[in-house]
Amino acid sequence: MNVDLLAHPAEEVAPELLGTVLTCKSPEGTVSIAITETEAYSGAADPASHAYRGRTPRNAVMFGPAGHLYVYRSHGLHWCANVVTGTEGIASAVLIRAGRVIKGEDLARKRRGETIESRRLARGPGNFCQALGITAEHNGADLLTGASVVLSEGEPVPAALIQAGPRVGVSKAHDWQHRFYLAGDPTVSAYRLSPRAKPSA
Questions:
Q1: Main-chain phi, psi angles of 138, to 5 degrees
Q2: CATH of range 3-182; options 3.40.228.10, 3.10.300.10, 3.90.1140.10, 3.40.190.10
Q3: Are strands 69-74 and 179-182 parallel, antiparallel or unpaired?
Q4: Are 84 and 116 within 8 A, CB to CB?
Q5: Which Pfam families is this protein grouped with (predicted)?
Q6: How does pLDDT run across 12-57, given as a tens digit for each residue?
Q7: Rounded to whole angstroms, how far apart are CA atoms 33 and 22?
């Protein structure tokens, strides 16, 4: 993966990440997932972003450099993985919402549950991280030259298959068309409007 692809605003990179592959190696084994759904989050101009109110110890990785992994805990329950993009010093990251397991399905199912259908193994950001084995220890990992977590190119995705829509589950700027996904792909998560969502100004 070329860092130049990631050195752009999150909303430009997010659709380009569809079809790329995130791989995580651990003592248990290796799991690779082809990305099928993403969401873009920027910084001070994005009310739904963790970086909206500035830099903190929690969101520091979002401020660059591009090509690193920003991992955070959602609702105290699930880990979520983001690919940092853009220019160093300006917060920008793409949340990985869903994908298709292409290697290590047995290990992914062991982590997620033996009865989970293949299409649901990495559907939703928390499930994606659980299937891949991503945790807090991977926060800040270099996705381009690192050893444990690697982002690589996958099969090219026809532009006609890429669709955009509103972001899932956020209460602010939820109607921004910054969610990108592969049309008709069964691994893509269902759209859910936050009950606290209000129209953007």
A1: -95, 0
A2: 3.10.300.10
A3: unpaired
A4: no
A5: Pur_DNA_glyco
A6: 999 999 999 999 999 999 999 999 999 999 988 999 899 998 899 9
A7: 5
